[in-house]
Amino acid sequence: MNSQIQQQVKNIYQLLFEMAAGNFTLRLQPDTDSKELDELADLLNSAAEKMELLIAALGYIKPHYTYQGLVQFTIILDKTFAIKSFSGHVPILLQYSADKLLEFSFGQIVAKQSIPLWDAVKAETASDPNAPAVVQFIFITSNQQLVPSYCTVSRLLYSNDIIINSITTVLQDMMPETTANLNMALHHQSDTVLIQNVREYILQNLENQLPTTSELSKIFNVNEFKLKDTFRHFFHTSIYQFYTGERLKKAHLLILQTSIPLKEIAFISGYNDYTNFYKAFKKRFSYPPSDLKRENGEDNNTV
Q1: Range in 51-65, 200-214, 283-297 with the lowest mean pLDDT
Q2: Is 299 helix (H, G, I), strand (E, B) or coil?
Q3: Residue 69's pLDDT is what?
Q4: Where are the domains of the chain?
Q5: Is CATH 1.10.10.60 the right assignment for the domain spanning 242-291?
Q6: Cα Rg, the chain, nearest whole Å
Q7: Where residue 82 falls among pLDDT bands split at 50, 70, 90?
Q8: Cα–Cα distance between 46 and 11 in angstroms, integer?
Q9: Are 163 and 156 in contact (CB under 8 A)?
Q10: Strand ranges, E, within the chain
């Protein structure tokens, strides 16, 4: 059995187990040297799709998924939609080297099922650069495994660069250890949905004051202690620290890739006082914002 067919058999095991656990979002890539395996992949994809639509139509909440943990990742594209940069989890998730990823356009890392959707998003971005899109792309790894993930696609302010943010799950290796880990994963599904929604809310409101945890718990109809505890469990930090860190990462990108004055970037990032922004930035990155070399070569001493 060659490695391609062996990997596809492994992927089939994974899909079947995920379907048994209630996760109908995974798909197989029918592209091997075995006609029988490709026909089976098409059949399983069809069954998973029909189950997903049926459960959604009936209004059921999906049962528990199995996974190792949430993975948050970011991909930055240039104006030609080529991959320009990415966070550290992307090479691990897609199983490519960092250097290899920089040779690709974004369309080369999504499965053929997602190409029409990506073309539509590109057209929408061109016609309305300020309109963010929230879509589900299916990424394809180097070993032809499919990874569905909901993504936000938006253009960076004052720049032609496009940012794609997402959070997805890293699934268990299905041969042979999944069964041993199943019980550990069963309680996570509702928590995953909750934390994904909280994270998206924070990312979409970075320019605004963060609500208190009491206010957030009311927004998401969850116990305040559970909200704080679950968020820390997934992200290993508090909600406020996550919010502050994301604002500073956004400021870091704006400094590198735009010519906006530093004081204005501080204000965009939610800091009314530049001194507070300076201190927070230096604490987060271990150097002041003025030390960054800007893309256009402008002097950072002018704030």
Answers
A1: 51-65
A2: coil
A3: 52
A4: 3-58, 69-170, 178-236, 242-291
A5: yes
A6: 21
A7: very high
A8: 15
A9: yes
A10: 69-77, 83-86, 133-140, 146-155, 162-170
Contacts of 262 (CB under 8 A, 6+ apart): 255, 274, 289, 290, 300, 302, 303
Q: Say how many C-beta atoms besides its own lie within 10 A of residue 108's C-beta.
A: 11
**Does residue 68 have a pLDDT over 50?**
no
Length of the chain: 303
pLDDT at 187: 44
Separation CA 137–CA 133 (nearest Å): 11
Structure token digits, residue 275:
């001194």
Structure tokens at 3: 């490695």
Query: DSSP code of 293?
Result: P
Q: Name every residue whose Cβ is closer than 8 Å to that of residue 141 and which is 6 or more positions away in sequence.
A: 93, 94, 95, 96, 147
- Give me the residue label for tokens 């004055």: 261
Q: What is the pLDDT of residue 175?
A: 31
**What six digits make up the tokens of 55?**
């459960």
CA 81/CA 153 separation, integer angstroms: 12
Q: What is the dihedral of CA 202, 205, 208, 213, to 10 degrees?
A: -30
Token pair for 212: 């208190």
**Residue 87 · residue 73 · CB < 8 Å:** yes
Regarding pTM above 0.70, the answer is: no
Separation of alpha carbons 193 and 195, rounded Å: 6
Give the homologous superfamily in CATH for domain 69-170. Answer: PAS domain (3.30.450.20)
